[in-house]
Every structure is written in C-alpha cells, then in structure tokens.
User: What shape does this take?
Amino acid sequence: MNMTRRYFLKTTGALALYTGISPLNLLGESGIDPNQLKAVKKGRTLVVIFLRGGVDGLNLVVPFGDSAYYDLRRSLAISKPGTNDESALDLDGMFGLHPRASALMPLFQSGAARALHAVGYAHNTRSHFEEQDVWETGVIGNTVHSDGWLNRHLLTSTGHGPVRAVSLGDTLPRILRGDAPAFALRGITDLSMPGKENEGAAMVAALEHAYCTDPREHTSAALDLLASSAQVTLDGMQQIQSAMQRTPESSVAYPDTGIGRQLKEVARLIKSEVGMEVAEIDYGGWDTHNNQGGVGGAFGNLVQDLSDAIAAFNKDMANKMDDVLVLTLSDFGRTAAENGTQGTDHGWANCMLAIGGGVGKNTEGGARPVHTKWPGLAKEQLHQGRDLMHTIDFRDVLAEVVQNHLGNTDLQKILPGYEFQPVGLV
Assistant: This one.
C-alpha cells in the first residue's frame, strides 16, 4: 500500500512528531550539553493561543479614557462604559473589555486575568508571514534558519513526563519546531492505535515510506532518523491513549466551537498528568480589513468564541489554574484609525491576554488589570502617525513566562542575543 504522510496522520488520529530537519542536529550540533539541563517546575503548563491574522487589540481591550480613540474610529469604536447595553466593560477607569468578552470579566475582577497593552518590537514589517515567524521564533531578522522559542525551551530543560509539548491541530506550528520532540495532535476523540501485534512495525515502515519514497536516495543516517521519529511518534500515541483511558471527559460545558473543543482537550491532557507543560492552539480569522464590526460582526463573534472558551477552560481547571497560564499572541496590532471599508489594516503594537498562572501575584502593590506604559493615540504619539507605539517588548513577556512560570532560566539560549527586562506579569 502506498501510504502518504497525510494518510498516515489521518489513520493514526493525526499525531505527528517533529524532531528537527537535519539528522546531525540530533547527534549533538545543537550546542546543548545534556548534562547541564535543569528540570522545569513540576506541574506547570503554558497554553499559548496564537490569534493568527493580527488581532485588533484596541477593540479587544479598549482605551476609552484616551479621547483620540473615538476620533480615530467613528464607526468601529466601542462606547464608554455605562453609555448603553453595548458599552465597554470597565477594567480600571482607563481601559475596558470588549462587551462580547464578558465571560472573562469575573477573571479580571478577581485578579486571575490581566491584559498587557502596547506590546511589540521595533522592527515590525506588517507582513503576516514575517511577523508570525518573529513571534514564533523570538528571533529578529534571521527567522528562516531559526527554530521555535518554545522548542528551545524544551531543548534546554528536562520535564516530568513522556509528552512535554502538544499542538492541537493537523501540523506542528513553527513555535514548537526544533530538535526537541513535540507533537501535533488533531484530536483526542479520534486517536487510535493499531490493533494487531504486527501493525506497529508496519506503521513505522509506512511512515518511513511516506517520507522516503526511494531509500536509495537517502543516507543511512536519514533513514535511522525517520525510523526513530516514527517510533517516538508511536510511543507518544500509546502514552496519550493510555492517559486518556484513565482521565474521564470533563462535565464542564464548553462552547461547541473549534477553540472550545481544543481547550477542552488541552484541559483533559493536563489532568491526565502525562507531563505536558506546553500546549499550543492556532485560532485564525483576525485579519479584519473589511466590515470588522464594533460589537457585532466578525470581530465580535471571534472575541466571544475566544472568551467563552477560555472561561470554560478556567472553570474546568479549577484549583489547578494557578499552575496553568493561558497566553495569547498575535502577528501585530491594527491601525489606530479605521479604514475606508469599516475595517482596520496591519498595524504595530498590540495587546496580549494572560489568564491564570498566578498573574500579578509577585507585583508590588497588587496587579493592575491592564499592564502598560500607555503611549497615547494622539497623532504625534502614534508610530509613523498611524499605529499604536510599542512600550513593552514582546520578548520580555516571553522570557518572563519561561523563567518565572515554567522555571527555565537559560534565557540566552531560548531568546539568543536579547537582554531580558522584567515585566511584572508573573
């Protein structure tokens, strides 16, 4: 049977493994000394939700206290708190939450959620492809040959279980690609293993064939890598399937949406105690150039789906949520002013959401619901006269999360060439 890689993924519940491109990297060229690896904090998990397309942070966390916001957005602006039934939800007298994100409001009020605003970096190109690469690799200007920053975290530390990193989706995103094993899992519900004794070996052979149609064209090292990767993939499948049999489905009602189902499965994986410390979910559709909508419309629908799913996840995790941090990333922000088609274009700085993980507990004087050095939206305060200026470097946020939440202090290998400045998030 000519089994393609796509067919292999479908027939094995779409569990795939990425262990790097070059076999030589696995033989020690990564520059990582295995004898110097430190164990990460046990029981900690980071859930990264990548909002692909560039989320409009100015309408997600609304700067209603900046009067220029209303001058720039005549049709898209979210009204000030208390104005009407579709007003922003007041967070701190300056910023408000989009009204369709009301499910998150109790978390902000209790201190379990925070927003970081005006986050970015100094060389944004406004290109989806380039900026997603930058945010996923943590490297500026040379992303083509760089692996993901989350994979470098895995490579420079040791975990506490057999499955440390999982992406919920058909393919492994750049953020998890590299020399350390990480899995792409389409779904737990259709994860299945071969039933007959000899089918495991046949599946390994099929995977080799899917990547190497003519073995004569490849070196023995490449074939060894393929066989090893296939075996680790099958081992991972067995570990997850066994853990799922011990972990019942949650009784919490999640929204019947893609992001809802994915977070439900992340929760189940965390509770299964397979050692998963990193989970990644892609949530697309945020490139709202046309008919973005203020409260209603495509943007509002996305905000509600995201917020409802995170709120359900928080409820499902219950007292485990202090050890679980949900963090949103995105390509870039949107223009401060709306465009001529009632949308927004590719911009500069943005906001991030952080839920759980003890956010703000180490902040002197208590955590603010919105953490920012607000640059302002007046014409002279905008980047190039059109975009929200960044005042927090996104790499500082990533570094603090890896060091303080996950417990990996090897920041120079995870974010090479960058000097970390504390943010005060976790």
Remarks:
- The chain has twelve helices and 15 strands.
- Confidence is low (pLDDT under 50) at residues 1-14, 18-29, 192-200.
- Residues 99 and 344 are 19 Å apart (CA to CA).
